[in-house]
Amino acid sequence: MQALRVLRSRWKPDDNWKVDTLKFRNAAVLVALALVLAGCSGGQWGWYVVSPGTETGRVNLGFMIAGLQETLSVSLTAIVISMVVGLFVALPGLSENKYGRAFNRTYVEVVRSVPSLVLIFWVYYGLPVVASISIDVFWAGVLALALSDSAFQAEIFRAGIQSVDKGQVEAGRSLGLSYFQRLRFIILPQAIRRMLPPLGNQLVYMLKMSSLVSVIGLQDLTRRANELVVTEYRPLEIYSVLVLEYLVLILIVSQGVRWLERRYKAERI
Q1: pLDDT 10s digit of each residue in the chain, 269 long?
Q2: CA separation (Å) from 21 to 14, 138, 206, 233, 258?
Q3: CATH of 71-218, one of 3.40.190.290, 1.10.3720.10, 3.40.50.300, 3.40.640.10
Q4: Which of 13, 44, 59, 146 is the most buried (most CB within 10 A)?
């Protein structure tokens, strides 16, 4: 008991912990409110269509939640590709070659200026005509989202790499390390720690932007909600559940990113 009192006296929650707790508390209140509303089937409300207490509600909820796999698949695949492309786009912008810097600036400005929804339409409907290839809905969405996000990733990598002390880079050069060895062992390990917050923001952004792929037929959370609205004619109730799905998903991802930030911060200490 004495040891427990000592631990309690020494442990003080930081601001991030308080913010995270508040977010989960608010999410719990919203979920509880939705469950209460789910029991209201009279009057103009039709919560029975998404209520776990009815057979119809359970079927509809299962149908909607099944879209989570597509949402996660397209988002995670797109974010990985966009990070790889963004890194290779950022490196020429850090070189002393004027053509490399021009390529970096042109790519970032052009891609960043095109709306994601327009890019999705162009990749799905235009790319097969231009390149004479066949592309399905999933990979069209992944490619469009990855291209759209790669411009932002390039700027994140450029800023993160430039934040590393030049003295450490010179030290690596004096040790005879090649450019890619300095990048792998000295620059990127330090830059990634500093880039975690913006990279986490981009992952959250990607999860939300993945809903746009529903316009070309991807059976994600949004697409399945739209199909239920057409059959059940209850947009308020169905889209309320959709909001909760994205809210819970993004809160979980945000918690994971914050955990990584705290872990890297602890390692540095």
Answers
A1: 444 354 344 444 555 545 555 555 665 555 555 555 444 444 477 888 999 999 999 999 999 999 999 999 999 999 999 999 999 999 998 888 899 999 999 999 999 999 999 999 999 999 999 998 889 999 999 999 999 999 999 999 999 988 888 888 788 888 888 878 888 888 888 888 888 889 989 999 999 999 999 999 999 999 999 999 999 999 999 999 999 999 999 999 999 988 888 887 756 65
A2: 11, 35, 24, 36, 12
A3: 1.10.3720.10
A4: 146
Q: Residue 113, Cα to own-chain centre: how many angstroms?
A: 20
Nearest to 143 by CA among 70, 77, 73, 208: 77
User: Rounded distance, CA 81 to CA 83, Å?
Assistant: 5
Give, in order, the Cα–Cα distances in Å from 181 to each of 37, 39, 82, 186, 255.
Answer: 58, 61, 23, 8, 33
Residue type at position 207:
L
Whether 201 contacts 156, CB under 8 Å: no
pTM, 2 dp: 0.80
Concatenating the DSSP letter of every residue in 124-157 gives IIIHHHHH-----HHHHHHHHHHHHHHHHHHHHH
**What span, in angstroms and rounded, lies between the C-alpha atoms of 147 and 84?**
11
